[in-house]
Structure formats: structure tokens, C-alpha cells
């Protein structure tokens, strides 16, 4: 909005020429989202606590340490989504279709998560929205976004999959590309959701991963940098750096209240939305496979659940004391801050490896 209102005035007021620069608007998006989160956070938490009473239902079969968290309100993702959305509307070029495709997934998945959280809180149990309805909603929003992306991108990219470490290799998936794109978005969303089990555990890895994709977005959307790094140039994708910046600012603001001991949980409202944001940006920037590296922590958590379920169904035995993986280490006696910080370190290492793919071509 500010871009459209103020940049046209640059001829009369030179200072407004700043809005031409993506880096300036990206910085503005970080600060705006963070400040909004700091401002609305306390009031939102008070309202959630008054409305929810006992807060998020705690699983009886979960780690014993979680019982003391009874009464902590959930749905803190509202804080993230509100801060992020306002910031994006203020600082992004709203004529860019990629902005709307990513925001559709983000807010659509946030709505699904909100419904799930609402049912859990109102019914005072951990079931929430049925898995089939949740998946159907995710398919709908991701499918529309995949169609928008495929219709906007150049013909040499719109149905193609880029392979990391290979500068000229593109696999044409044809009609299967939308299916692949949908799977990336849904998989990323649910992976972040599974990781969100301890205070601050998902928030910082999301900040790290989104920070990496802010760099990817900026580079693939800039012809000079894309050509120099021998990555595929995606016209208009650079604008997604503004969304990434808004997510980072909103998550930093949320982390202030989510740091151990958490005053609020993001809930499915936040985790499904943030995972969807990551997945949709990866699809636009043609870095879907690199997402598996950058978001490797989320992949590990998801794989631990798959292995646990498969092992129990096939052999009747469990590989882990409890899944997802962070609960396994809780059961082993690790302190919650120890698990969280070590997982943050893993997320950072994997992000650096993901960044290295820019030169290993």
C-alpha cells in the first residue's frame, strides 16, 4: 500500500524513491510486523486467557512435564498472522500475483488451524478438526495457489522442477507439477505443525528457514544475481522477500511471549500457516527440494512420526519412546530448554547447508 501510494510521488519528493528499493521495504516489513506483535501481544494474550480459561487441552499420554503447562492459552498464531498481514499490505507491491498466492496459502491454512484450535478449546479435548476436513482445506488452498503460480511463471519454468547442485537441469513435470506443488505446501505445513510441541521450538527454526528463503527470493528475482549464481531467474519472485521479512518480524515479536515458560502457544493457527508460507515460497522460487534441506529439522520430526507409526503397525514395537522426535528426548530425561536450543542449532546448521547450494553448482 505504501509502495503504491508514495513511490509515484518520488518525482516531487525524492525521499519517496526509497520505496523503489526492495531492501528498504524488506527492512520496513520486519520492523513493522515486530512492533505490531509487541503492541497487540499483551492484549491478545489477556483476551485468550479470559476466553479459553484452562487454555490448550494437554494430552494425558504426553510427557509429564507438559501437565504444568495447563492453562496456557493457545491460538497465538493470531498475533503472527495479524502482524504479518498488516506489514505485507503496507510494504509489498500488491500488484505482484506471487504475493497473493502465498498470502492465500498462509491465511487459508491459518483459518484451518484456527478452526482446529477453536474446536479443541471449545470442546476441551485434543481432537479438533477431523483429519479429512483439514486435508481437504489444505488441498483447496494449495491447489488454487499452485494454479496461480503455474499461470504466472514463464513457460520454461511453470511446470518444471529445479534440481539443486545442477545449474541447467530442469525436470518438466507437466500436468503433475500442480500435484507436486500441493504436496510441498501441505507437507511443509504439517511438518512445522508436528515440530510445534515445546516452548519456542518451532518459532526460531521458522525464522531461520524463512530468513534463508528471503535470500533465495531476492536472488532468484534479480536477473543479475541469478545469472551470476547460475540459478533460475523467476521474474517477480524477489517481492516475496517482503513476506519473508514480515514473517520474521512477526515471529520475533511472538517469540517474546512464547519463550520458556511460554505465555501463549501459537497453536495450529500459527504452525499450519507458517509451514504453508514456507512451502508456497519454495514453490515460487523453484527451491522445493532445497526446502527439505533448509527445513531439515521439520523433516526429521515428520520422519520420526512416520517411522514410529509404521514400526508399531508392522511389528508392534516403537522405535522412539514417543513421537515426534522432541518428545522422545523429553522421555529420555532431557530438559526442555536443552532440547529446544539443540534443535535450534541443528536448524541453523541445516540452513547454512541449504545456503551453500547457491554456489555448489
UniProtKB/TrEMBL annotation:
The protein's Enzyme Commission number: 2.7.8.13
Requisite cofactors: Mg(2+)
Single GO molecular function: phospho-N-acetylmuramoyl-pentapeptide-transferase activity
The keyword Repeat is assigned to this record: no
GO aspect biological process, one term: cell division
Annotated membrane topology: Multi-pass membrane protein
Binding site for Mg(2+): 193, 268
Matches recorded under PROSITE patterns: MRAY_1 (PS01347), MRAY_2 (PS01348)
Cited InterPro entries: Glycosyl_transferase_4, PNAcMuramoyl-5peptid_Trfase, PNAcMuramoyl-5peptid_Trfase_CS
Chemical reaction(s) catalysed: UDP-N-acetyl-alpha-D-muramoyl-L-alanyl-gamma-D-glutamyl-meso-2,6-diaminopimeloyl-D-alanyl-D-alanine + di-trans,octa-cis-undecaprenyl phosphate = di-trans,octa-cis-undecaprenyl diphospho-N-acetyl-alpha-D-muramoyl-L-alanyl-D-glutamyl-meso-2,6-diaminopimeloyl-D-alanyl-D-alanine + UMP
Subcellular location: Cell membrane; Membrane
Pfam families, A to Z: Glycos_transf_4, MraY_sig1
Pathway: Cell wall biogenesis; peptidoglycan biosynthesis
Designated name of the protein: Phospho-N-acetylmuramoyl-pentapeptide-transferase
Annotated family: Belongs to the glycosyltransferase 4 family. MraY subfamily.
Organism: Terasakiella brassicae
Amino acid at each position: 500500500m505504501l509502495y503504491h501510494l508514495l513511490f509515484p510521488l518520488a518525482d516531487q519528493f525524492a525521499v519517496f524513491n526509497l520505496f523503489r528499493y526492495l531492501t528498504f521495504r524488506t527492512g520496513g516489513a520486519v520492523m513493522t510486523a515486530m512492533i505490531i506483535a509487541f503492541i497487540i501481544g499483551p492484549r491478545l494474550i489477556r483476551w485468550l486467557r479470559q476466553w479459553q480459561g484452562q487454555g490448550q487441552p494437554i494430552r494425558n499420554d504426553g510427557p509429564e512435564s507438559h501437565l504444568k503447562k495447563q492453562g496456557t492459552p493457545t491460538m497465538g498464531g493470531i498475533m503472527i498472522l495479524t502482524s504479518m498481514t498488516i506489514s505485507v499490505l503496507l510494504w509489498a507491491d500488491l500488484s505482484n500475483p506471487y504475493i497473493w498466492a502465498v498470502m492465500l496459502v498462509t491465511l487459508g491454512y491459518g483459518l484451518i488451524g484456527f478452526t482446529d484450535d477453536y474446536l479443541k478449546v471449545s470442546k476441551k479435548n485434543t481432537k479438533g478438526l477431523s483429519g479429512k476436513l483439514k486435508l481437504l482445506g489444505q488441498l483447496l488452498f494449495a491447489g488454487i495457489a499452485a494454479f496461480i503460480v503455474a499461470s504466472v511463471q514463464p513457460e520454461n519454468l511453470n511446470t518444471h522442477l529445479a534440481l539443486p547442485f545442477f545449474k541447467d537441469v530442469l525436470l518438466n513435470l507437466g500436468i503433475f507439477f500442480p500435484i507436486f506443488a500441493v504436496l510441498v505446501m501441505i507437507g511443509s505445513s504439517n511438518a512445522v505443525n508436528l515440530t510445534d510441541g515445546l516452548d519456542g521450538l518451532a518459532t526460531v527454526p521458522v525464522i531461520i528457514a524463512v530468513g534463508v528463503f528471503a535470500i533465495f527470493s531476492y536472488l532468484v528475482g534479480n536477473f543479475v544475481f541469478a545469472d551470476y549464481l547460475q540459478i533460475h531467474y523467476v521474474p517477480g519472485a524477489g517481492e516475496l522477500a517482503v513476506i519473508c521479512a514480515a514473517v520474521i518480524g512477526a515471529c520475533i515479536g511472538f517469540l517474546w511471549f512464547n519463550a520458556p515458560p511460554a505465555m501463549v502457544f501459537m497453536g495450529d493457527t500459527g504452525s499450519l500457516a507458517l509451514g504453508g508460507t514456507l512451502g508456497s515460497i519454495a514453490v515460487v522460487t523453484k527451491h522445493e527440494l532445497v526446502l527439505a534441506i533448509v527445513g531439515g529439522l521439520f523433516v526429521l520430526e515428520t520422519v520420526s512420526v512416520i517411522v514410529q507409526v509404521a514400526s508399531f503397525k508392522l511389528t508392534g514395537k516403537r522405535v522412539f519412546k514417543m513421537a515426534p522426535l522432541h518428545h522422545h528426548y523429553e522421555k529420555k530425561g532431557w530438559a526442555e530448554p536443552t532440547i529446544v536450543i539443540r534443535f535450534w542449532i541443528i536448524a541453523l546448521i541445516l540452513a547454512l547447508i541449504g545456503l551453500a547450494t547457491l554456489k555448489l553448482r
